[in-house]
Amino acid sequence: MIAVVYSGSNYAEWRLAIRDKTIATFKTQGINPYFNDEKFITQLLNKNINLIHHAEEIKKIYFFTAGASSPERVATVANALSAFFKNAKILVEHDILAAAIASCKERKGIVCILGSGSNAGYYDGKKVKKNNFGLGYILADEGSANWLGRMLLKSYMYDTLPDKIARKFEKRYDYDRGQILDKVYRNAQPALFLSSFTDFFADNRDDEYMKNLIKTGFRNFLTTYVVDIKKEDPGAPVYFVGSIAATFQDYLRETATELNIPITNIIKEPINNLLSYYSNKN
């Protein structure tokens, strides 16, 4: 049995399979070694009945997370997994590689993530070329759920949101200034709060202000990352994965067209493509 996992900060998608037969499909809270230590990960694993039931049967685990950006953070996840899945060989990799495999398999391409966070890279069919992107929810994440939430909250607290949207925001969330600042600056995982407003954007997507904000995020993402990567290989196909890319794909494609960047495909959840890829290798 193999386990394939694709984890963001908000939640992790799990698939357990034997050859081409899926045994279990479920979600857990996200596992990101930027925010979670070994103790947290171990406690999370011990709370899931699917994992407890199949722990000894699982022989290989392919685990992809946004936080796997250094040997130390990879070790944090790998050590927790190894202690729980005692018979399994563990592979922990960055989520940009998962996005590349799900989109391109073994073909080259420019791979972009637009979900709770954002990132991009050039994939040569085997590995993602190193770059200076992926700076996280404070310094970067342009166009992501986190970035959109940040811009929405800033506009609300600066009193620059259009009245109609501001009233809808207040009715839905009932946050005062102090509560917002506490959630951003005193919460252990502020990125989860900042990325929690996707449904509000989706429900108000036809409002001109919200549409322009979404497209501004996409434009910032494309000009910051994709335009630069395309200089290396102008003909490389461009792929997107992630909830924000899929939910607002009409605005994403519209913005990309304005910048002369054709998008080959958009995948909301790469986990199923990953499962198919690794099931064929075992």
Write up what this structure looks like.
This protein has a domain at 2-98 and 271-279: Nucleotidyltransferase, domain 5 (2-Layer Sandwich), CATH 3.30.420. Strands 3-2-1-4-5 form a five-stranded mixed β-sheet, sandwiched between helices. The protein has a four-stranded mixed β-sheet with strand order 7-6-8-9, sandwiched between helices. Helix content is 47%, strand content 19%. The protein has 282 residues and is α/β, with parallel strands linked by helices. The radius of gyration is 19 Å and the shape is globular. The chain has 14 helices and nine strands. Strand 6 (109-114) and strand 7 form a beta hairpin. The longest helix is centred in the last third of the chain and has 23 residues, at 208-230.
Features:
single chain; 282 residues; alpha/beta; Nucleotidyltransferase, domain 5; 5-stranded mixed β-sheet; 4-stranded mixed β-sheet; 9 strands; 47% helix
What is shown here, in short?
The protein is α/β, with parallel strands linked by helices and 282 residues long.
Q: Identify the CATH homologous superfamily of the domain at 2-98 and 271-279.
A: ATPase, nucleotide binding domain
Q: Into which percent range does the helicity of residues fall?
A: 40-55%
- Gross geometry: globular
Q: Give the class-level CATH name of the domain at 2-98 and 271-279.
A: Alpha Beta
Strand proportion, as a percent range, falls in: 15-25%
Structural class: alpha/beta
CATH topology of the domain at 2-98 and 271-279: Nucleotidyltransferase, domain 5
Count of helical regions: 14
How many beta strands in the DSSP annotation?
A: 9
